[in-house]
Automatic annotation (TrEMBL), chains A, B:
Organism from which the protein derives: Streptococcus varani
Enzyme Commission no: 1.3.1.12
InterPro entries: 6-PGluconate_DH-like_C_sf, NAD(P)-bd_dom_sf, PDH_C, PDH_N, Preph/Arog_dehydrog, Prephen_DH
Taxonomic superkingdom: Bacteria
Similarity annotation: Belongs to the prephenate/arogenate dehydrogenase family.
Record pathway: Amino-acid biosynthesis; L-tyrosine biosynthesis; (4-hydroxyphenyl)pyruvate from prephenate (NAD(+) route): step 1/1
Name listed for the protein in its UniProt record: Prephenate dehydrogenase
NCBIfam families: PRK06545.1-3, PRK06545.1-5
Pfam families the UniProt entry points to: PDH_C, PDH_N
Gene Ontology molecular function terms on file: NAD+ binding; prephenate dehydrogenase (NAD+) activity; prephenate dehydrogenase (NADP+) activity
GO biological process, one term: tyrosine biosynthetic process
């Protein structure tokens, strides 16, 4: 597509990783970067993620063929407003990387629409607790879903320009309505975060009068509350820019709790059993075992003896096979797992691993 | 304490593992076993977990100095009723292994009380997805909490007999009120299970109209719903024998959701931030990172490059240091983790591991 100039606004984990993906397939593109903080700006320059860097957002805007806003949601909206006041290339295309889409798309419509500036909302659905350019990872979005919003003003060729720009990410590009994106993420991410934090707060207060609450929390409780330690600011922004779908999920969930409460109050054993059984069947049908953003998820479950270096022994056998994840699930009576679970990226690796374990050890294995 | 005869009723994972623990410190004790199913009965005999086995509960009752009921809750209650009708040794002591305690203790009071039969409720707080005598594990209860209920009729010497009997489990014995046990477990286990199953059912129904719900479920959602795949029957029994504390937790949680709903409806950004921040701080204060049943939990977090055999390399460095758990948390933007987390059983192992990683690698580490 010829030499282009890309302006990445925000050189944190996301922006820097996007830069690496662009470099991979478009080494000839010129990449300009904005970052408020000096450290990531310096690292991005030193590492060559960007060719030039600034802490003045307006400085590079007029040189860009494509502008990628990779900053927090509120900042993204503020920059959209500012962009409308800046001199830009006539065919400039603007996109973003925010976790919610409708509020951002509405801001783009409001500020860029009148100026006829083309905008496509984007959400690369991957990330990390790690932050900053120092954590840039060209594989961060591999096999991850990368959402592009359909809007009334969306032109096919605009999305084509972005999928070409980001081809080096090896992500899975999906077009969907901004509203639908926000509804789905409210169900699988935003509302569950409220549930987890509420449960944590409830248990914390309960522990004041019932101290063993702190001791008896088992694997299930820990897993349910793990995300509670996320950074509060990001989640506040997410809720504030996606309130209606979240409010709707809360209300719907309230009615579910009331229903279960009634079943339990009336000691309806069969209905309670059906409730738990439905959840179990639903989870299996949802193939939730798959990692979000990965097309397929390949697990091997190995029943191992409780002795030293068994994991080491197994990984030695698997040397050269790329491991996506590994865990020993705690043995907890009310939990379901209790064996060494190793996850591979594809069926080939899984099959190789399974045959090695079968031939070289006597450990029972099952495959997901 | 001289030769004793122990009658273990139920030779599943729990009963068989208890038998192994008794054998370790009391090789001279005679262990009799009941199991309805033939397979676990045969395995328990073949493996020597028990000296004799029967499928007739009443058959061995009169020979036992101590009777351990390790069957489902309803069956435990049924056997308590039946015990009152059987000829038993005068000083027989009866205990159980059920997940809820008050209903069982009340049944014991009702059926055994009048006959003056001594009963102490028990809850060995460990387990596994594995079942049957085939899964018996002498280490299953190591460092796990083992609850003994205090009742009006409890005699110190009765609990002393049990802690002596089970000394080989290397468990952490705690005496607590049956009601308090059920309240605490309703908060950290029973109610959270309802939350997880409700979330799963909600998402499953949402997916019917919003199919991407199946695709976008990320690590946080998966962790929150993992326990949903547990066996429905056990959880139904737990709720049915602990309804009031669970109902109280549901109602209390409903008010929390209503509160958050109001904060969000009124766009109270600061209050929402405080809500998330409180959850994060509470979780850290609760040291929920500790594994339930383990006195202390020692984690090292290693930031590793995304390349093959890094875990292998690290475990080779840690050779000989016992690893309790290991995991790479998925990189998910809305999640908090994304580094190799290795858990050790004690501070010594953690310190050894940390110094090895520090000296032999350049990977950044943090220690919990």
């Amino acid at each position: 597509m010829g030499q282009k100039t890309i302006y990445i606004v925000g050189l944190g984990l996301i922006g820097s990783s996007l830069a690496l993906g662009i470099r991979r397939d478009h080494p000839d593109y010129r990449i300009l970067g904005y970052n408020r903080g000096e450290k990531s700006r310096r690292i991005a320059l030193e590492q060559g993620f960007v060719d030039e860097a600034t802490d003045d957002f307006a400085a590079f805007a007029d040189r860009a063929d494509i502008i990628i806003l990779a900053v927090p949601i509120e900042q993204t909206i503020a920059f959209l407003e500012e962009l409308a006041t800046l001199p830009l290339k006539e065919k400039v295309l603007v996109t973003d990387a925010g976790s919610t889409k409708e509020a951002i798309c509405q801001a783009a419509e409001k500020y860029l629409g009148p100026a006829g500036i083309n905008f496509i909302g984007g959400h690369p659905m991957a990330g990390s607790h790690k932050t900053g350019a120092i954590s840039a990872d060209i594989n961060l979005f591999e096999n991850a879903y990368y959402i592009f919003t359909k809007t009334s003003r969306t032109q096919k060729d605009a999305i084509a320009r972005l999928t070409d720009l980001f081809s080096g990410l090896h992500a899975r590009f999906i077009e969907m309505d901004a509203q639908e994106h926000d509804r789905v993420t409210s169900q699988v991410s935003h509302f569950p975060h409220i549930l987890a934090s509420s449960l944590m707060n409830q248990a914390g207060e309960y522990a004041l009068d019932h101290p063993f609450t702190n001791n008896f929390a088992a694997g299930g409780f820990r897993d349910m509350t793990r995300i509670v330690e996320s950074e509060p600011g990001m989640w506040t922004s997410i809720l504030m820019t996606n309130p209606e779908p979240v409010l709707e999920r809360i209300a719907e969930f309230q009615s579910r709790l009331s229903h279960i409460s009634n079943l339990l109050a009336s000691r309806d054993t069969d209905a309670i059993w059906d409730f738990f059984d439905k959840g179990r069947r639903t989870r299996k049908e949802m193939e939730i075992h798959k990692r979000a953003g990965v097309d397929s998820f390949f697990d091997i479950f190995i029943t191992i003896p409780d002795q030293e270096d068994v994991i080491l022994q197994i990984l030695e056998l698997l040397r050269g096979i790329s491991v996506v994840n590994i865990r020993i699930n705690e043995e907890n009576r009310e939990d379901i797992d209790g064996i060494l679970q190793i996850t591979f990226k594809n069926k080939e690796d899984l099959d190789r691993a399974a045959s090695v374990i079968r031939t070289k050890t006597s450990y029972p294995i099952t495959i997901s």
